[in-house]
Amino acid sequence: MRDSVQKVALDLSSKIESGEWADGYRLPPERRLAAEHGLARNTLRQALSALEQRGLIVRQVGRGTFVRAESRPALADGLLAKMRNASPVDLIEVRLIIEPQAAALAATRASGEDLATIEAALRQSVLAKGTAEFEHWDAALHLAIFRATKNSLLVDYCEAITSIRNQPRWHRLKQRTVTPASRHLYNRHHSTIVTALRERDAETARKAMIEHLTTVRDHLVGAAS
Amino acid sequence: MRDSVQKVALDLSSKIESGEWADGYRLPPERRLAAEHGLARNTLRQALSALEQRGLIVRQVGRGTFVRAESRPALADGLLAKMRNASPVDLIEVRLIIEPQAAALAATRASGEDLATIEAALRQSVLAKGTAEFEHWDAALHLAIFRATKNSLLVDYCEAITSIRNQPRWHRLKQRTVTPASRHLYNRHHSTIVTALRERDAETARKAMIEHLTTVRDHLVGAAS
DNA sequence: CCCTCTTGAGCCAATATTGAACCAATGTTC
DNA sequence: GAACATTGGTTCAATATTGGCTCAAGAGGG
Question: For residue A71, what pLDDT is reported?
Answer without folding.
Answer: 43
